[in-house]
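debug: dumping io for the single-chain case to check the tokenizer round-trip. Nothing else runs in this session.
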Amino acid sequence: MSKTVMIVDDSASLRQVVGIALRGAGYEVIEACDGKDAISKLIGQKVHLIISDVNMPNMDGITFVKNVKQMPNYKFTPVIMLTTESQDGKKQEGQAAGAKAWVVKPFQPAQLLAAASKLILP
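debug: decoded output
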């Protein structure tokens, strides 16, 4: 049975690149353009991993992760932050919010897939 990954990023081209890599590796993909959109799409869906940008309109990635961690169904869903932010302060904020990994853009799809396969529970 395939695993579902949600990609949250305000860049359509980035969602496309990540989506192609994930689908190529056999994952189902749900796309969302920001934190608010993502939360509306989470309702009742089984999601095995969330990959989220940090800087987005309407709801940024850190706020989004904090919200996800309040939702009983998604409390334990692993989150990878995929971002241009490489400052330690932001990383710590992300980890405090509940993010499990931090991948800095530009990234290699293989690097992202490796992180995904480590975090997605069988």
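debug: round-trip ok. DSSP finds five helices and five strands in the chain.
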